[in-house]
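TA notes. Do not distribute before section.
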Amino acid sequence: METNTLCLKIDANNVIPDLKQAEESLDARQELALDFSGVTRIDSAGLQAVQRFAHRAEDKKTKAALRGVNVNVYKTLKLARLTSRFSFEN
């Protein structure tokens, strides 16, 4: 069975629009990777967008991976109890 993986770059200045685009890309994907290497912090609105994305990915049964996550962003995701919903890659 062939996997259909897409990797999208999340821009630090456009976290919410980039995550909305990622949500739209969930259809017909078994796996989706989001490159967070350019994001050094995430605000509450961005955190809500990550939460919405995680919920939609689970609904679509899509495995979501986060790449290049900064330690501060990881800690924020951990506090929001979102880390279990993603796999993490360097």
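Switch to the second chain here.
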Amino acid sequence: MATVVITGGSRGIGAAAVELFAARGDRVYFLYEKDHTAAENVAKKTGATPICCDVADVQAVKAAFDKIPEVDILVCNAGIAHYGLMSMVDEATWDRIFAVNVKGIYHCVNAATPFFLRKQAGSIVTVSSMWGQVGASCEAAYSASKGAVIALTKAMAQELGPSGIRVNCVAPGVILTDMCANVDKDVLAEMAQESCVGRNGTPMDVAKAIAYLADSEFVTGQVLAVNGGYVIS
């Protein structure tokens, strides 16, 4: 039984990952920022332990990890998005996106690494996006932050590998989560048809990829695209 810590675990991909790891018998802790009701629902459904924490706040992250006895697997899933022309993105929004999407990983990895070093073993899975691979018009800040996640993943894999710590990344495509709630249904349908498999993804599609990377002992520094063939690179 592994001890798994998942950030952004109260909804979407994070909640699916909590469900999957808990169902296979792992001890799961998940961080969430503010939706207490959603977190309580996930906790009741899975038996996982919720911890309220803004991953952009280093002190909050340290306090959260003080409540966790050990870490075997860290899933850095917490993320936020913004849609609009780059010229219309104010500096505070840009900074917040990077604070959560990139600096949040920095905080959580630094908090978890002492656990890994004591055992000389550990697995980290980050969550990027296909837009981090190819960029997206009107999502410059999000794309840039998710591109940074990919570069950070590859750097950490090289840095932490000699200590027995693997670091990999999933790059989801169009996944039917809250982030898609305001996207026109016709647009979503068109995007589904543009994929090789003719559909958009589900949170569990990504959760299964996360679990694969978490467990694969000879895989590190890799980016696994989970986009149904929408982007092939």
